[in-house]
Amino acid sequence: MRGEEEPGPGRTATLCGCVKPALERGNLLTEPIGYLESCFLAKNGTPRQPSICSHSRACLKIRKSVFNNPEHSLMGLEHFSHVWILFVFHKNGHLSCKAKVQPPRLNGAKTGVFSTRSPHRPNAIGLTLAKLDKVEGGAVYLSGIDMIHGTPVLDIKPYIADYDSPQNLIAPLEDCESQNDQRAPEPTSQAGGETDSCTRGQLPACEDLRPCQSTEEKPRRPGCGISGANLLEPSDPARHTDLAGSLGLESGGDQSASVAEAQSGSRGLRKDFAEDGAEPGLRRAEGAAFLQGGSAEARTRAASCPAGTAARAPRSSVVPAWVREAPAATLHVRFTPHAEKDLAQLGSGGEPGVDQASFKYFRSTKEARRAIEAVLAADPRSVYRRKLCQDRLFYFTVDVAHVTCWFGDGFAEVLRVKPVSEPVQVPGECLWDQPP
Ligand SMILES: C[S@@+](CC[C@H](N)C(=O)[O-])C[C@H]1O[C@@H](n2cnc3c(N)ncnc32)[C@H](O)[C@@H]1O
């Protein structure tokens, strides 16, 4: 990723004389598979995590320079409901060398960069779990995103709860034994409220092979394949925001290089995909032991844990309490009559009675309104701005809407919604990108 290479045995010189960084050394010359077309044009107002705004949409076209036939690379992906997107925080300006950052939830306090989801990290790599709306030719259509327009995407991987969610892993043998010893263990999360609502005292993990109540399979939604219970419904952003809040997810654009995001990775999504050829229990047991940093011996023991001994053990992920402490309460969002009129006009493209005409990503004015509400309800302001520029105007752009608003005690009020080409200019605005 970095320009300069250190001399060393791991490099190979090509015919043209240039030096290839070696994979063995962990050096990688990345080639974006595509550049994201996103409904968010700038960092300001872009949600801090993808779960904040389910109506946020993006499209990624795989570049022909990467694959001659981009559609071949996406074959089979349509069977998944969610995907991991690996991307570059290309608007960071520079690579960060700060070992400690200040997540908004810590209100100015510092913590190690690797304990956060800060965009400001040594390799500027982002990781977002997005909903896969559709695959069309060589393009994927996503929703529930937190990346800005033009973001270079490095990779797409399917989200597979069996591998990606601790709730679906099998406990190694040691855990089985200790869980059997402790019929009523303490909650594992400091903050409590984990999605795993299984009463472990009643269902010792190693004695009961049934899945925990909280992750019980629900009928699949047609063409979706994901259990309905844990889906964040696009049609209900309020519930979405509630869920996001209860899971410790937060929203908002990151304005300051020193202000970072932190968040637990677990969203409690449940999936029941078949494993690719391997015996499911064995595969999960291996994964569990590995995740625990287990030894080869532990892995073998876990893998050979007989039926009834190594069962699907509902395991909560653990996050520090601060991750779930909201930096500010969820805000009430309201529109002035003027803003209501603006939005209706924008949706109609100026033609009375017409909806959706002007939006590129939103399907209706209602969706646009919900997206604006979701962004603002989670308070997208930086800590600095929240503390020191309380009564100043705040702007952000979503789809073709340039939104002007202000924040009061417990609320955000949308003042204007203008087409992006006509941003509202207000003199004396607070430069919240610059620290005091
Ligand atoms: C806190 S990061 C989290 C991203 C990802 N979910 C993760 O955990 O790695 C999300 C914020 O990064 C910023 N951002 C999004 N795309 C970016 C880009 N291409 N370059 C720089 N910053 C970006 C936005 O301000 C957004 O609110």
Automatic annotation (TrEMBL):
Q: Where does this protein have compositionally biased stretches of type Basic and acidic residues?
A: 207-220
Q: Would I find S-adenosyl-L-methionine among this entry's keywords?
A: yes
For bias kind Polar residues, which ranges apply? 179-200, 253-266
The Gene Ontology biological process annotation of the record reads: tRNA methylation
Catalysis: reaction(s): N(6)-L-threonylcarbamoyladenosine(37) in tRNA + S-adenosyl-L-methionine = N(6)-methyl,N(6)-L-threonylcarbamoyladenosine(37) in tRNA + S-adenosyl-L-homocysteine + H(+)
Pfam families membership: TrmO_N
Arranged from A to Z, the UniProt key words for this protein are:
Methyltransferase, S-adenosyl-L-methionine, Transferase, tRNA processing
| GO MF assignments | tRNA (L-threonylcarbamoyladenosine(37)-C2) methyltransferase activity
Q: Quote the PROSITE patterns the UniProt record gives.
A: TSAA_1 (PS01318), TSAA_2 (PS51668)
Q: Where is the TsaA-like domain?
A: 30-168
Chain positions covered by the region annotation Disordered: 177-274
- Record Gene3D superfamilies: YaeB-like (2.40.30.70)
Which InterPro entries does the record associate with it?
TrmO-like_N (IPR023370), UPF0066_cons_site (IPR023368), YaeB-like (IPR040372), YaeB-like_sf (IPR036413), YaeB_N_sf (IPR036414)
What does the UniProt record say this protein does? S-adenosyl-L-methionine-dependent methyltransferase responsible for the addition of the methyl group in the formation of N6-methyl-N6-threonylcarbamoyladenosine at position 37 (m(6)t(6)A37) of the tRNA anticodon loop of tRNA(Ser)(GCU). The methyl group of m(6)t(6)A37 may improve the efficiency of the tRNA decoding ability. May bind to tRNA.
Show the NCBIfam families listed in the entry.
Answer: tRNA_TsaA
Identify its protein family: Belongs to the tRNA methyltransferase O family.
* Protein known as: tRNA (adenine(37)-N6)-methyltransferase
Species source reads Oryctolagus cuniculus
Taxonomic placement = Eukaryota, Metazoa, Chordata, Craniata, Vertebrata
